Amino acid sequence: MALVNKIIPFSCIDGPGNRTAIFFQGCNLKCTYCHNPETINKCLNCGKCVSTCPVKALSIKDNKVLWDDKKCVECDNCIKACNHLSTPKTKDYSVDDLFEEIKKIRPFIQGITVSGGECTLNADFLVDLFTKVKEELNLTCFVDTNGTIDLSKREDLVNVTDKFMLDVKCIDNEEHLKITGLNNHTILKNLKYLLEKDKLYEVRTVVAPNLNNEHTIKEVAKIIDNKCKYKLNAYRKYGVREEGLKLHGEVGPSEEEMKIYLEYTKTK
Ligand code: SF4
Ligand code: SF4
């Protein structure tokens, strides 16, 4: 079983073509600029959010918080009330149940992309899901990852995945530790490993104030050496929690600034 935060049936920003994007709940990083911090932890069933729901879509049974998606009006009061970086709006899926959801949409999509949270924390589940989806639905399977799981030790997952999308947040380890809570050693190892295996669709870096963006972009571009796409995302304050706002502020880089950063991605 795996805990899923959200399924977007049709997405054109999560890899090539029209894809179903599946967001898993739970992440092992705590990025200061995260836009969806409610995906970081799994719910503790403390019940604090239940009374904030205006339509009684939340209830408690046997010490477990239950969410009725049919009643929910997506006001996000529950997420705002949670101080555990979590949400009661998740669902546990078996591989077969998730496969059935994908099968319903099959005629309209080119593939699926799993994201998060950090989807590779469910690596065994992904191997089973991708194997079934490829064999029975003939769809491509992409993984959008923070790169913290050593993929050279998960060849089963790498082999069954068509392409990966990898976030590289900071090249400097101290800075990486400061903004994510974890070192970047495995991420950089995965970057080189996936390039060697020709398994990278795209690498991404968030350009945020008060980080050494120029250094990160130039060094990451050198490693990529035009072997895959390198995408820069401008920091925006929406969804970012207080700690992140203190560090990065309210205003992200302008279009003009992003053009300058884009130049740093050019190695030739
Ligand atoms: S988002 Fe849904 S479950 Fe949460 S408080 Fe609003 S209506 Fe209730
Ligand atoms: S979502 Fe947060 S507030 Fe609600 S029950 Fe879970 S941990 Fe408690």
From TrEMBL:
Q: Which cofactor does it need?
A: [4Fe-4S] cluster
> Which ranges carry the Radical SAM core domain?
13-268
CDD domains per UniProt: Radical_SAM
Molecular-function annotations in GO: 4 iron, 4 sulfur cluster binding; metal ion binding; oxidoreductase activity
Task: Name the UniProt key words of this record, in alphabetical order.
Answer: 4Fe-4S, Iron, Iron-sulfur, Metal-binding, Oxidoreductase, S-adenosyl-L-methionine
Q: Where is the 4Fe-4S ferredoxin-type domain?
A: 36-63, 64-93
Q: Which reaction does it catalyse?
A: glycyl-[protein] + reduced [flavodoxin] + S-adenosyl-L-methionine = glycin-2-yl radical-[protein] + semiquinone [flavodoxin] + 5'-deoxyadenosine + L-methionine + H(+)
The answer to whether UniProt assigns keyword Chloroplast to this entry is no
**Short name of any one Pfam family annotated for the protein:** Radical_SAM
The UniProt similarity line reads:
Belongs to the organic radical-activating enzymes family.
Tell me what this protein is called: Radical SAM (S-adenosylmethionine) family protein
Q: What organism is listed for this UniProt entry?
A: Romboutsia ilealis
At the highest ranks, the source species' classification is:
Bacteria, Bacillati, Bacillota, Clostridia, Peptostreptococcales
